[in-house]
Amino acid sequence: MSMTGQLLIGQRACRGENGELRGLDAATGKALEPAFGGASLADLDRACELAEAAFDDYRERPLERRAAFLESIASNILALGDELIERCVQETGLPRGRIEGERGRTVGQLRLFAEVVRQGSFLDVRIDPAQPERTPLPKVDLRLRNIAIGPVAVFGASNFPLAFSVAGGDTASALAAGCPVIVKAHSAHPGTSELVGRAIQQAVSIYGLPEGVFSLLFDTGRSIGQGLVADRRIKAVGFTGSRTGGVALMKIAAGREEPIPVYAEMSSINPVLLMPHALEERGTQIAGGFVTSLTLGAGQFCTNPGLILAIDGPALHLFEGAAVDALKKAAANTMLTPGIHSSYCQGVERLLAHAEVVTLGQGLEGDRYQARAALFATSARAFLQCLALREEVFGPASLIVRCADEAELKQAVSALEGQLTIALHISEADYPQVRALLPTLENKAGRLLVNGFGTGVEVGHAMVHGGPFPATSDTRTTSVGSLAINRFLRPVSYQDLPAALLPQELADGNPLSVPRRVNGGPAHD
Amino acid sequence: MSMTGQLLIGQRACRGENGELRGLDAATGKALEPAFGGASLADLDRACELAEAAFDDYRERPLERRAAFLESIASNILALGDELIERCVQETGLPRGRIEGERGRTVGQLRLFAEVVRQGSFLDVRIDPAQPERTPLPKVDLRLRNIAIGPVAVFGASNFPLAFSVAGGDTASALAAGCPVIVKAHSAHPGTSELVGRAIQQAVSIYGLPEGVFSLLFDTGRSIGQGLVADRRIKAVGFTGSRTGGVALMKIAAGREEPIPVYAEMSSINPVLLMPHALEERGTQIAGGFVTSLTLGAGQFCTNPGLILAIDGPALHLFEGAAVDALKKAAANTMLTPGIHSSYCQGVERLLAHAEVVTLGQGLEGDRYQARAALFATSARAFLQCLALREEVFGPASLIVRCADEAELKQAVSALEGQLTIALHISEADYPQVRALLPTLENKAGRLLVNGFGTGVEVGHAMVHGGPFPATSDTRTTSVGSLAINRFLRPVSYQDLPAALLPQELADGNPLSVPRRVNGGPAHD
Question: What per-residue confidence (pLDDT) applies to B177?
């Protein structure tokens, strides 16, 4: 298998005729072979037509087949071997070890969703049996199951070229739910996208699924991405990217004749609260962990710690000193794209020039597209007054907010926008203060974590990678972990359907052995 | 307890100074005592302030107390006795038996949600225990629970003055989820609203809850309703009403700085498919049930059968004849408001005047505000061409679409917008045809039912009262039944939180005995 620069529309591979784009070597900015042809609106229309045609067939395939299909995608990705790893390293500038780890995570996600599909509790089967003798009115037979919502548009993210891109969490959870997927490839890693796209295309073929289950489109402008969200056949959207991009898609979706859900994971500064006793007892140790988390992957994680909140004093000064010492030794790392690098530099310039912001230190300088880490400090007063200080600077930059006292710390916490994560560094003596803060923190973030940093997102059943706006567009869900499947489901209730017509999940005797609730309680059938 | 015309803002009752409105005797149009003062924006602000202040306290009250609070609301409503029933009959024109039945349903809903709260599976507790020995990286401890989303705005509906109004399904499910509620009373039954509002206010007091858990506002224009949806402290909206009204609220919510979910149940014509063998075998019998369902409650049900789809021929003619015979004897019934009556008359006029529509028959004429039932027929060709024929006429009017053949029937089904219900009348010989139609029908409606009509919505665990747009604004949920609680929840994940700080639901040893999943499977702790 190798790259051709073609669009994947169902089982076809065809040359896009709407301009072209190329992958760039992230380290040098040099254009790579081959050129990728951009999709036209006709290509988009064809992909949507196939997805719509595939939908009813795909969503009713046996759960075991759907699970095996997901596992087959995972195997096909592994079978790409070094070609995938090398291309991905080249396009993203991320180190080989990181990309190999991310491939493991991507494959792990697909396999996790295969298990979720087999286990069947995502169907939320509920049976309220008929009571023909009930007075004054007999009770009908009602059976409920979740079904797939419809074809889903997925936008590949730049910062996780495997785990949040073509076969990433959004695609895996949508396919697991029974939805066909059309991916708009991220222009930062078109080669990686094509290779992974072909791995999915192949799995569709092996499992004899209708071809519209998967398509991959390259977009040389914005018309394909916007057109996908606007298309009447698309019923939900998964997106990871900037706040501007996410909000634009939300507006398109809300303005449709039939509005649809958009799951956009957008913007988070992931505050870290250093509580007084923890800061006093082990501030310099925390500082080391902080700088490691801040500079990991050139700071290009959604959960990068962009904000530190603490009460000012000698302990905080020691923390700052230790953080600056570590930061000064931090090597600059290549960023994902020249555009991301240039945004990062602008964000750092704004902080360097800000009258209320002190520059504590910077990391080592690097090459042309490498990000130099930076650490700043400001007062809580300035933080509360200046909205710009609450904005994400995507990359290895962080801002320490020095609060005068506990009251100011609380004010700063209350002023936070929605976040993916809030980290707390605490000792036992801090518990009373933390206990009082917890309700506010719960309202601000999808994940609260203690004595750690938000980078490192475990893919499991109890993970929430979500949170109130602007962290995401929909706080009711997560884009990582098994719960993510719920985003692409809707409940349907069947009343008095004859046994011969009932879907298998709802049939008497539970032939599929899926978890079911009878009259609201656990079933024993 | 009796009516004063006051707003209920937390534990206060105060006179609204922003104009006034009165309940009308539905049968005569005569204004009733007392006058209700309209809320000002300052009243709205105060209610939101109290709701926000109450939120963190209320959502963490023990589940047992929350359940008992819901049951106390139910008892207080019953204790209102005849005063409530009489006022409600007067304001709505609905018969006493219907209102008594609706009270039973309202009380039953509150008690159902009390059980849901006690049972605890709505919390969706998930625990992925730590694996400190895992390589290459140790696994953190992750625990997930659902928490309440925030203060909720509920819009009372005119057509269910008890079950979908002040203490109706939206309020019950939001309170059950742990959300404070601010109700915008429907102007068609202000007296009923105040009485029920006081029953809730009293329960808040009995249970020592923070007063902002509940407020009730009267709106003399649209500023209070719109202002509620726009207010930054409101985090979700429940609405049952017209498509125009629902879409307007959706736009306000989507245009906020922080967009919020709107659960609007809006518009459905609830198609009834008469399959050929059933029509042949028992068409006249079905016709009787159809007319009963059509004229029930003056046709003012969200699930009223506004459309019949069938293949043309002698059997359909017999059905039509029998339906017209029954309809001619159907008494006219008082509608909820003069406005609804006038909209109904206009809708019927449009059909009477439509060039492609035949009037099959009308019911008995009635008094000034009574709705005369009406039955029309058209061709599938006209139905497919004219969008206006797919619009809801709220009241006892229905349209039969005569399809030339099975292909045209399929086309008509495919052209349907989203629906709350689709009913199928079938015999065993129809199964193959029905089986082929089912996937399309599932994509169109929240509930599919066989050999019955959508009116009569069972409140249980397996009910879906929802469906694709425009039936509702959010197809992922239901506004009736225990699943409705999910609308007002969001997941939060806790990573490595010390035992002393964990919420009880997540604590080791499961002290609350709530259902939990450990590593994705059922727990045995």
Answer: 98
